[in-house]
Amino acid sequence: MDKNWHAINVLKYGDTVGLSVGVASSSVQLPTGVTAQTIVRVSSNTDCYIALGGSGVTATSSDPLFLAGVEYITIAPGQTHIAALRVGVNGVLTVTEVY
């Protein structure tokens, strides 16, 4: 907040990509401009398992559980794609560049 109690935007958002989360693992390339050490905002309207990796990445039930909601993740070297697999019901996962 500034001295007049107005919110100060400290995060700016870039490109966003979306991914349908279903019974089979699906993946998508991270937004344009995302490289190692970039922070991304990941949001999902359903519980799902997620995996980050190269173009052949696949999510399985042994990958980290991502509960419906929003998290911020730092991208590691070699991570160019994200994959998701539903836990119970289909949904949508979005990834947005943060800078």
How much of the residues is beta strand, in percent?
over 45%
Instruction: Look at the helices and sheets and give the structural class.
Output: mainly beta
CATH topology title:
Jelly Rolls
Roughly what percent helix? Answer: under 10%
Kindly, what is the distance between the CA atoms of the first and last residues, rounded to a whole number of angstroms?
20 Å
In the CATH hierarchy, what is the architecture at level 2? Sandwich
Strand order of the largest sheet: 1-8-3-6
Compile the SSE list and pairings:
Elements: E1 13-21, E2 26-29, E3 39-44, E4 48-53, E5 65-66, E6 69-74, E7 81-86, E8 91-98
Description:
It is a single chain. By secondary structure, this protein is mostly beta strands. It has a single domain (13-98), classed as Jelly Rolls. 0% of the residues lie in helices and 47% in strands. It has strands spanning 13-21, 26-29, 39-44, 48-53, 65-66, 69-74, 81-86, 91-98. Strands 1-8-3-6 form a four-stranded antiparallel β-sheet, with no helix packed on it. The chain has a four-stranded antiparallel β-sheet with strand order 2-7-4-5, with no helix packed on it. The radius of gyration is 15 Å and the shape is globular. The model has no long low-confidence stretch (mean pLDDT 95).
Using brief descriptors, characterize the structure shown:
99 residues, 4-stranded antiparallel sheet, 8 strands
